Amino acid sequence: MGSYVPNKKAEQEAMLKEIGYQSFDDMFSVIPDSVKLKAPLHLPSGKSEFETANCIKKMAAKNKQYCGIFRGAGAYNHYIPSIVKQITSKEAFVTAYTPYQAEISQGILQSIFEYQTLICQLTGMDVSNASVYDGATAAAEACAMCKDRKKKTFFVSETVDPKILSVIKTYSFGSGCEVVMIPEKDGQTDLIKAKELMAGTGAASLLVQQPNYYGQIEDVRGAVAVAHEAGAKAIVSCNPFSLAVLETPAEAGADVAVGEAQPLGLPLAFGGPYIGFMACTQDMMRKLPGRIVGQTNDEEGNRAYVLTLQAREQHIRREKASSNICSNEALCAMTVAVYLGAMGEKGVTEVANQCVSKAHYLQKGLAEAGLTKKYDGEFFHEFVTCCKESAYELCDRLEEKGYLAGLPISEHELLWCATEMNTKEQMDDLIALVKEVVA
Amino acid sequence: MELIFELGQEGRGLDLLPACDVEKVVLQAPKREKKMHLPHVSETELSRHYSRLEKRTHGVNDGFYPLGSCTMKYNPKVNEEMAALPGFTNVHPLAPVESVQGCLEVLYTLQEDLKEIAGMDHFTLQPAAGAHGEFTGLLLIKAYHKANGDEKRTKIIVPDSAHGTNPASAAMAGFDIVNIPSGEDGCVDVEALKKAVGEDTAGLMLTNPNTVGIFDKNILEITEIIHKSGGLCYYDGANLNAIMGQCRPGDMGFDVVHLNLHKTFSTPHGGGGPGSGPVGCKDLLAPFLPGCYAVKTEEGFEYEACEESIGSMRSFAGNFLVIVKALTYITTLGAEGIKEASQNAVLNANYMRVKLADAYDMAYDVTCMHEFVMTLEKKKKEIDITAMDIAKAMLDYGIHPPTMYFPLIVHEALMVEPTETETKEEMDHVIAVLHEIMEKAKKDPEYIKHSPHHTVIGRPDEVKAARTPVVAYTFE
Amino acid sequence: MSTPTELKYSKTHEWVKEEGDVMVIGLTDFAQNELGDLVFVNLPEEGDEVEAGEAFGDVESVKAVSDVISPVSGEVCAINEDLLDNPAAINEDAYGAWLIKVKNVSDSEELMDASEYDKFCESEK
């Protein structure tokens, strides 16, 4: 049996006696017999570290590792610099709790302050929180930020990732708010329809995604204008790399910018832990949910960091808090900060440009191989293709060769993604394989 | 110390990527105009910056961390190694089901283990934290009443000793909150509960042992009162470390429960996250479970989703790598180890409670479970020493303070949870330190009131931080 | 600070001043002292209805938030926007830093005069 209890049986018994208990049973007599377990738990016996590690490693070995990943759809395969994992494995960072005791938590607090600054730099917004669970919950929380006593309808574009939409709907089932979809036209948000649908409805917010689920680049500035005209707040859910090259949410006039920061240094890891970033204008700062670190000083004037604006939060405001969030993704926020520190402006822009260039190279090649592009609009690093054959069968054939193909989003459509990880050689090989299958 | 933005030079950086090997494409869409200020540092500077930050951070590896209600037990290293296996970290969450059998086996095995430990029929591992789990569980209750055409059930009963997340989660799920006062013994006032229930009762949120560390022995009567009124019972698993292997929420009459893998099951807190807050439920709530969960079939593992599901709580299956860590821990401990952990968590708490009772007032001087609450209310009146002062004085000894000012029903509260992974010697040392601090407080209260004296900063000006918020670095 | 005799007081520590048809409402010095350094004030909007005995806003200190209860029913006709930037004004001059003005007053809680309120505060300590 493995155990992390350091005191041996004899010590435990001596401690029990010393404080007046005959035995563990005696001490646990405060639990009524009526609810006590009558038999041991039906779980396997404990194991040594050696056996446990073998058991878990066996499970890991059952997963297939692909030689090339061409799938994104909300989880992206990017290069992670060596220093990122090293730094974020430091024991104190890994094992600390939420920095409630500022005097011995300046390291964590400063790292969050730096993360907040970086998110403000990326999005152009004024204020960032210390993170939420993932990009989808960030979008749902952003919608909740925009509601008030009179405005309880969230408008969401159909071109938003369905996983994000599902979470917004779940959260809205709780709050009793209504979610109304804005239709898509040619793979982009139909802003004319949006204007019609939102006029005079008491809309709380409009959410668009940049680039959208199909990889298309949206007219964010246009969407923001539609939202504001309807008296609603504008929320943009964005891919962090797009922020390096495209007009920022702040430049487009958005009120809230959110997104999934997994691409910034976090592994795919079967979907988590990931990290949702949330940033907003100064005006909306007090509606921002979750923890926020602020700068101040101590009695001697030393620069210091603390959790601030805490009266917004659940541990003080209880049922009147804007959100119940407590634990967030602090270590992932540090990962993002180390990643951005390692890449710098040059590196992040380079990744963004390589993503765009490689996705366009791949799209052209696949088109020549017989997979036609579905939408004509400009795309970032994802795009949709159509084929006569079954998309699923095509995926199976590519999988045999070690490639994770685009995601089938219907019987005959695939959503592809390319990043800096996909080499020209690899893409050429993939395109050749597709040619074989389609021909 | 400097911020990362105050280090380095323009143009400095790491060489990480090869040149682009395809033709460069320039987008026509509107471009970013504003300069993006990201750090421009060498790898040496980056490495040293974070080493300095680490020295200004106190983790469980640094010393005793008796933060009540947070279960800061030792975080085993093998858990970290397992979660870092490329066989897990390189898996795309939308890869075909045949290619992710190992991940699904992890989910399935942990679901099964948690069902047994909590006495529940089903588990979802999707919620990303405890509060997220609470929200999930309450939405299950809401969906259940809705499916029964019982939408008049709009009220969730919460004792005044509850964690702040409980009422906040209930409000997010659209419920009205009915606060009921605790009895003199810190437990649920059964008579008050009887008066509070009715046709509008959707459910009750409770943790047992409760937030003052006492096992509520009326638990079966309490859950029966709720059930008889037509409501459901929610168990906040924050305090499961006290009872795992001894008794189970499912056997106490609870219908739905969330567990905190980052408390009870030894996964680290990471300075505030990532956590994981799986939700378990009895059969009656199963049709509404969120997202997908893993099932075992003859061909292997599969995803399954519920038809009447409340929807997704987040993208994908959950904080998967945290789930791997918790499974590693449960696999290591097994049935006996789990029981041994709760036994010693309770023993260590009682040991410290008894040994401190001569110098510190106990809010409830009875056998506690995994934590106990001290109150400085009298000391504040007598010598003007508060819970905050004691906590800050502990910092100078390299000891993390207990949870301060919680639960709200105890004034000047310090809530101590040693956990099972501390040695007797360490606890004896902390007990001695706490005695020393109290002696000092009586002789030289000013010294204690200005603690800490030996940390990298003194007490920060929180009023200034809140009145004039500076929440990002300003570039010139 | 002495309790101004021209004002009326509620049991939840708000003061009320009559200015013709309009009632001016603020927090008492006793209240600000108990709450400590205030860091933010949440106020209703002009035109909102307030009800006697119900919260119309709240005040935040670093680690607490407290509802402010309206002593009267009516319509908010002005809010003290200066407090949004400078909540410390309440700590500095509780009887100068009004929160809201209410018109069309239809109902009122039972209010105390200054000497009754001083006695009441004594019993609260």
Overall geometry of chain C comes to: globular
C-alpha end-to-end distance of chain A: 59 Å
Radius of gyration of chain C: 13 Å
Structure annotation, total helices of chain A: 16
Largest interface comes to: A-B, 205 and 199 residues
Q: What is the CATH topology assignment of the largest domain in chain A?
A: Aspartate Aminotransferase, domain 2
Which of globular, elongated, flat, extended, rod-shaped describes the shape of chain A?
globular
- The CATH architecture of the largest domain in chain A can be named as 3-Layer(aba) Sandwich
Share of β-strand residues of chain C: 35-45%
Task: Report the β-strand fraction of chain A as a percent range.
Answer: 15-25%
Low-confidence parts of chain C, pLDDT < 50 over ≥5 residues? none
Assign the structural class of chain A, choosing from mainly alpha, mainly beta, alpha/beta, alpha+beta, or little secondary structure.
alpha/beta
Multimeric state of these chains? heterotrimer
Question: Overall pLDDT of chain A, averaged?
Answer: 96
Helix content of chain A: 40-55%
Total number of β-strand segments of chain C? Answer: 9
Strand order of the largest sheet of chain C: 1-2-3-9-8-5
Main sheet summary of chain A: 7 strands, mixed
Describe this protein's structure.
- The complex is a heterotrimer of chains A (439), B (476) and C (125).
- Chain A is an alpha/beta fold.
- Chain A folds into two domains: 105 residues, Aspartate Aminotransferase, domain 1 (Alpha-Beta Complex); 256 residues, Type I PLP-dependent aspartate aminotransferase-like (Major domain) (Aspartate Aminotransferase, domain 2), CATH 3.40.640.
- Chain A is built from 16 helices and 17 strands.
- In chain A, strands 2-10-9-8-7-3-4 form a seven-stranded mixed beta sheet, sandwiched between helices. A four-stranded antiparallel beta sheet of chain A has the order 13-14-17-16, with helices on one face.
- In chain A, strand 7, helix 10 and strand 8 form a beta-alpha-beta unit.
- In chain A, helix 4 runs antiparallel to helix 14 and helix 7 crosses helix 8.
- Chain A is globular.
- Chain B has 14 helices and 13 strands.
- In chain B, helix 4 packs parallel to helix 9, helix 5 crosses helix 6 and helix 9 crosses helix 12.
- The mean pLDDT of chain B is 96.
- By secondary structure, chain C is an alpha+beta fold.
- Chains in contact: A-B, A-C, B-C.
- At the A-B interface, helix 1, helix 3, helix 4, helix 5 and helix 6 of A face helix 1, helix 2, helix 3, helix 4 and helix 5 of B.
